[in-house]
Design a protein that fits this description.
about 300 residues; alpha+beta; single chain
Amino acid sequence: LKLSGLAIRQAVPVGPSQWPRLGLAAPGTETNSAARLEFFDDDGKPLRVLRLGKNHLHANQSAAPAGEDESWPDGRYVLTSTNSPTVAVVSDPLSEATPQAGQWLDKTFFKIEKPESISVNFPDATNSWKLIRAGETNDWKLADAKPDETLDNSEASETANSLSSPSFNDVALNVSPAQTGLKNPTRVEIKTFDGFDYSMSVGLETNDNYYFALNGVSAVFPKEPAPEKNEKPAAKKARDTAFQANLKKLQDKLAQESALTNWIYEIPDWTQESLLKKRAQLLAAKPAVTEPNATSAKNGDSSTSKN
């Protein structure tokens, strides 16, 4: 839509040998290659192919402090035809025109609310753990805690909240389980007080992202609110209305999140670091054991014996 009304600000007489300098080399062939933008009609027939090069920078006329760059993009170099003797400078950087699809994606993701239990099972079972709690306001407990294990409440809370609002950077396409580490992943199971069950897998870390799969989302909701004694008709009607509204909200959430199970995601590492704590990292530090000074005791005994 922008291109349909975009004006050419300047036509620069530049030949093919200078195209790489402007980021307009043939796509995929050189370091300074262009982004290729193609348009098609309804029948798939090509209409126009453009090469999008580097941004055209506007230089600030005022003196900038030493070491600081005061320029900013105010356009872009565009090659309209490989037979053209000139390169066009258009009046928009066209930042949306990028081959990286990640920024085009709808980033609406799943959201863990009111967790009841969280289990993380590492490939090395000694690092695995499970947290449980009796109610939404109760403290977390370490399931099957050993006598010498005490849960660090702050670590547990941080871990439990790690998926309260997760995000992803991109969808991973054409990758094998061996590449992603999802052949032998860390498996995460979460149950919520709202009736949701989440099953997910976390693979290898690469480029500050973890490969992640939401394997399944299921839920069981009550069909009607629990009855209350001596409830007046008006109060019951209001409560039923509120129940149905909340039920619809939960059903919509289930439908939206279930649709996310079709892909492998690249999730930023900072959203996973708290969740992927090993068992020992969730435990409170053990108090230091103070041992008697054996040397002093020995000297004292010797002195007494001498006297």
